[in-house]
Amino acid sequence: MKRLFLYLTFMGVLRVLAQEQTIDLSGKWAFAIDSLDKGVAGKWYAKPLADSVVLPGSMTTNGKGDEVTVHTPWTGSIEDSSWFFAPQYAAYRQPGAIKVPFWLQPVKYYKGAAWYRKEVIVPRSWKGKHITLFMERCHWKTTVWIDDHYIGSQNSLATPHVYDLGATLTSGKHTIALRVDNRVQDVNPGENAHSITDHTQTNWNGVTGSLYLSAKPVVHLEDVQLFPDIDRKQVVAVVRVTKGTPGIVTLRCSSYSPDSTKLPAISRKYSIADSGKITITYPMGDNLLLWDEFYPQLYSMDVSVGTASGERDRKRIWFGMRRFSTSGTQFTINGRVTFLRGTLDCAVWPLTGYPATDVASWIRVFSVCKSYGLNHIRFHSWCPPEAAFQAADIVGLYLQIECCAWANEGATIGDGLPLDQYIYDESNRIVKAYGNHPSFCMMTYGNEPAGKHLTSYLTAFVKYWKEKDPRRLYTSAAGWPVIRESDYNCTPDPRIQHWGDGLHSIINSRPPQTAYDWDSIIAPWPQPTVSHEIGEWCVYPDFKEMDAYRGILKPKNFEIFRETLRQHGMDRLADSFLLASGKLQVLCYKADIEAALRTKGFGGFQLLGLSDFPGQGTALVGVVNAFWKGKGYTDERAFSRFCNAVVPLARFPKMVYTNDEQLSVPLEVANFGPTPLPNEAILWKITNDKGQILFAGVFPARDIPIGNGIRAGEISVSLHQVREASRLTVQVSIADHANSWEIFVYPSSLPAPTPGDILVTSKMDEQAIGVLDRGGKVLLTLEKGSLDKGGNIAMGFSSIFWNTAWTGGQPPVTLGILCDPRHPALQEFPTEYYSNVEWWDAMSHGSAIRLDSVSAGIEPIVRVIDDWVTARPLGLVFECSVGKGKLLVSGVDLLTDRQARPEARQLLLSLLKYMRGEAFRPEVRVDVERIRGLVR
Q1: What does the alpha-carbon distance between residue 525 and residue 602 come to, in Å, rounded to a whole number?
Q2: Which one-letter DSSP state was computed for residue 10?
Q3: Which of 184, 467, 796, 841 could cross-link 812 (Cys pair, CB 3.0–4.6 Å)?
């Protein structure tokens, strides 16, 4: 907080000084929509405009634009186009009641040219000054006229549009006319790039952030770039002064330390060459303070230039003394190995539809990221405004910035299109504007490129920047290709579920364990590897969140999903679906993150994501929502146990045991904290669900160095004393850091099944019908693949990957189970209300049953949570009365290969015990033909 206070104090002083030479242009502007592109030919820059808006802002925040219709010309791919024709969406295609499921829906929409016009009075004191028009964030292409004089056009998506008005603007009244066009025109960065797409920040039209005219001396600072050298304890300042300035100028540099101590000033006189470039070396003294994630210590430097006439121009630059580099296959910060624990920022700002330009808003977001154990943010196919860099400097985050492109889905890179040059231009603008920020550690062209010549283009791009500016690291692109010239790789290869894996992924095809890592994947690559967009695990919509959308974006997609759930009679279960699927989501993220931390020599990961992505068909992948608020099923304290700088790890060969086995688990520590951990003991304990300690131990104290794959001992205990089916918690702790895992232990020998009058069968044949007709009991345990109703529902253990609309229904299409753990049918099968590792066997050997094909009144013992898009009532275990008898149906095959499946044996035992008891009294009566119709 002290750093923030000092920073805001210094910036406040600078703003007060700057106000003497600026004219604030925020406020009311005249406005007109130019949907027919008549404004230039009609000289609208010289004519009054009938309407008005307030800037900074967008057309949408000002209520301008068209109503959303089925013909709205969205910017962004729509992979599932069924909304345009499917009967179930007919009610949402009606004029005046449009609701789209693709993304959050703006209250107004406009794509095209719009005009903004404002009168301004230039004071006499500005005579002879160099005047510029500064517009912090524009979307997208701007064209400026002063009075009726054309000034120029700019199209940066990442940096301020600054127009040089020279020294010829006379005192008195002038009119600024601004044309803003948000169409993809001269350059196509890809319609899904988060710099322009409706998937996230919206394709808005307007100007946000600072908006002003400024006056400077004719001899002024055009640019200052600071190059810290922590080894020599100095900063090399590369200063550019007005080009072609004749004569001698005085350059002065002075710096302030993080505690506001002023360091000695340096003053030099220079003869300015045509280039206007001056280089000066500034010593930082012996008591150098470094910047990193743990100690984000910021210096400021005042640079001023003046002439003999006494006029001076000055800048204050905040910077950090740091070196972000690599050592072999790992990243280093100031020579110490670090590990990137990152998430994506995809420009999601639901209230405005465009990113904030104030530091406080970004500090709030980044503080949430830090609290969840992260130290890194990747800006997916966009570059944030200045305030984000300032906030990251203060909080201590390593940023990967991208040049606003996702050259795919209709765009390519390296094929000679205008985007090729634009990327070079935009990257130079980005580095000039934000290059001094210590948080700006990495840069890439953008996301997942396409193009016949993309590899050669991106190789040249990386080499260009490595030679030009060593202050950060560079890679080809987020996703691919892996090239030897990159400082690091950003690839999707190391993760537990790849795009298209479906049920063949690690998490869905292998019984739960924590022994795997990515050693063999990264072995061929000599540079660090960051895993690209790991996770993508979905959770059910939180309909309580809808009230928070009080701005220009409305959750019409949530309204559709809620209505679909209501139509299937399950709206009362919405919160339960959220919590149960959320617990599974966290389990999936834990598996992903720990696999990365277990990989020795790994560079890090980039989650997709810590927060929700509301576009691309609605990807609810966050443990916090689009407002960076928690959802109720986990919090920062729980998440940061397995996602942090220091994390104890365990390599479980499996997570389900029988009590005749030995539990042998190697332990490790990943330590990427600020220092080695000196003389620390590793403690472990195993408790049951009552909190009773069954086993415990301590490994001797030792020094834990920086790094991962650090062996910490091995738990080895016999499980024979665990007599009953049990859920056990294994906790490992070192210093103030603890991590835990839940395992399940079942008796190796169960009583021989004594069904009595219960028929256990996999077929609804004449024998089963006869038992029911005589008033008997039948346990119908269905073979996987035998279902006719619901048999095509792709069910797996994991949560939904990304979302079914964008992946074309990639399995699994379900979100785990929901049950009442106190139900008597589950008394011998320890469980909680959600999917844990003990349900992997059932989900892998089972099928979800469409309950509405059986009876509308059935409440299943174990429910399967369906995709929110379809919201079908699905059951895994349910009961009913058939004829005179009682039937319990298990969608899980409990008979096949059960000797190798302790979970199946235990669940069968529990169900049979329930069926023999008085509690087995099914209330819903179902015709036998309905049951017969379930099976092919």
Answers
A1: 11
A2: H
A3: 796
Please give the structure tokens belonging to residue 372. Answer: 């969840």
Asked whether 700 and 681 are in contact (CB, 8 A), the reply is yes
What pTM was computed for the model?
A: 0.96
Annotation: CATH topology of 22-211:
Jelly Rolls (2.60.120)
Whole-Å CA distances, 81 to 564, 616, 621, 734: 18, 12, 22, 52
Query: Both tokens of residue 168?
Result: 């010829």
* DSSP secondary structure letters along 899-912: GG-HHHHHHHHHHH
CA angle in degrees (0–180, nearest 5) for 357-239-472: 60
CATH number of 324-639: 3.20.20.80
Query: In this structure, what token pair is assigned to residue 747?
Result: 């008796």
For residues 616 and 380, give the distance between their C-alpha atoms in angstroms, rounded to a whole number.
14
Half-sphere exposure of 420 (CA within 13 A, CB side): 17
- The mean pLDDT value for 391-412 works out to 97
682 forms beta bridges with 699, 734
Residue labelled with tokens 């829906």: 105
What tens digit of pLDDT does each residue of 634-661 get?
Answer: 999 999 999 999 999 999 999 999 999 9
Structure tokens at 49: 């405009």
CA distances from 719 to 372, 540, 549, 732, 743 (A): 34, 37, 52, 18, 12
Residue 307 confidence class, pLDDT cut points 50, 70, 90: confident
CATH of domain 2-10+219-319: 2.60.40.10
Residue 283: strand pairing partners: 234
The confidence score (pLDDT) of residue 785 equals 86
Question: Which residue is associated with the tokens 């080009």?
Answer: 243
Does 223 score more than 60 pLDDT? yes
Q: How far apart, in whole angstroms, are the C-alpha atoms of residue 601 and residue 3?
A: 33
Q: Where are the domains of the chain?
A: 2-10+219-319, 22-211, 324-639, 646-746, 758-932
Neighbour-count burial for 813-842, b at 16+ CB within 10 Å, e otherwise: bbbbbbbeeebebbebbbbebbbbbbbbbb
Whole-number CA gyration radius for the chain? 32
Positive or negative, the CA dihedral 354, 358, 359, 364 is negative
E strands of 655-736, at which residues? 656-658, 662-671, 677-687, 693-704, 707-718, 726-734
Fold of 646-746: Immunoglobulin-like (2.60.40)
187/190 Cα distance (integer angstroms):
9
Checking if the pLDDT of 10 tops 50, the result is: no
Smallest CA-to-CA distance from 502 within 814, 784, 787 is with 814
Q: Which of 594, 438, 425, 395 is nearest to 514 (CA)?
A: 594
Same fold, 2-10+219-319 and 646-746: yes
CB neighbours of 487 closer than 8 A, spacing ≥ 6? 326, 462, 466, 473, 474, 475, 527, 528
CA count, 13 A, side-chain hemisphere, 925: 3
pLDDT(9) > 70: no
Give the mean model confidence (pLDDT) for residues 401-415. 96
Q: What is the DSSP letter of 422?
A: H
Closest CA to 627 of 637, 614, 636: 614
* Residue whose entry in the numeric block shows the structure tokens 């699927």: 581
Per-residue pLDDT of 603-616, as tens digits, reads: 999 999 999 999 99
pLDDT tens-digit series, residues 649-707? 999 999 999 999 999 999 999 999 999 999 999 999 999 999 999 999 999 999 999 99
